[in-house]
């Protein structure tokens, strides 16, 4: 995910050229166009000299925003095309991704759900394009955290996540008609450096410990 290019140039900074409606104070007011000192352009609604209402802001680096503004900031519903080719469609609050939205990543992955201050935060679904696996559940500051579910092609895992890792009690449900119960326990492993001068690193790895297997009714698999 890239936020490069998401910072817009303030129109009262430096000289800008454009045309459109103005009020008695010669402020942009109504529909207008402007080319800013950065080379960015804006076309849309103004109110008292600020972008306000619906508009299109094109960045010199190729990024683009189409959507709502309030007092010069992206605020409301909009779509942002980022320079790296990714795209976000959803809510903005004062120039930042907030509320419900969908992010389309360059590698084909998608996330649909809650956002807070540019990060995945709340409830949402992340789909991994390479495998088709989906994560459905809780997010905290951009990471899987809390109760969630990993859905694979022929089985799924339901349990807890912490700081983007599997941790704690959970269960695997297989389409063949059984469940495996257990828990993920974090284990420390020492990773040697590439050379004698490199320091050893302690790596935490989640290891599954099964406590039992039960049969389930096929009707509840879905």
UniProtKB/TrEMBL annotation:
Residues 1-14 have a biased composition (Acidic residues). One of its GO terms (biological process) is spermatid development. Keywords: Cell projection, Cilium, Cytoplasm, Cytoskeleton, Flagellum, Meiosis, Repeat. Gene3D superfamilies: Histone H3 K4-specific methyltransferase SET7/9 N-terminal domain (2.20.110.10). Its main location: cytoplasm. Residues 19-30 have a biased composition (Basic and acidic residues). Functions as part of axonemal radial spoke complexes that play an important part in the motility of sperm and cilia. SUPFAM superfamilies: Histone H3 K4-specific methyltransferase SET7/9 N-terminal domain (SSF82185). Residues 1-54 are annotated as: Disordered. GO terms for cellular component: motile cilium; nucleus. Coiled coil: none annotated. SMART domains: MORN. It is found in: Cytoplasm, Cytoskeleton, Flagellum axoneme. This is Radial spoke head 1 homolog. It comes from the Eukaryota. It comes from Stylophora pistillata.
